[in-house]
Design brief:
Strand content: 15-25%
Strand order of the largest sheet: 2-1-3-4-5
Largest sheet: 5 strands, parallel
Distance between the termini: 18 Å
Number of helices: 5
Radius of gyration: 13 Å
Amino acid sequence: MRILIAEDDTALQCIAGRLMKRWGFEYDLASNGQEAVTQAQIHEGEYDLCLMDIDMPIMNGFEATKIIRHNLNYFPIMALTGNLRAKEEYLAIGMDDYLEKPYSFDNLYQKINELTVKFYKFKINGKD
């Protein structure tokens, strides 16, 4: 499994990277939304999931998600944020789920598995 992690906080990038390694996932890091869009374009069709921070410099997670959804093939995107006031907006712009920071590692692992299983079922049924 390959995951794109869009997160501007270097400490959280490090933690996420360690978790991905522990769980056996490949991953790429983006420090802002613009980098996330670029990575998604370069590696189109290769990501099984994106973990998208919302509040990032240069381009936020909302804008990055809008661009990815409009221009690239579908893959699940989950918001990782401390701001759940806008949770309906996350879903409305095309995010598949959200997880509130701080989150437990077990909860993150569970959400990753739920979203990627749904994604693979979607692809297998020929609806991609």
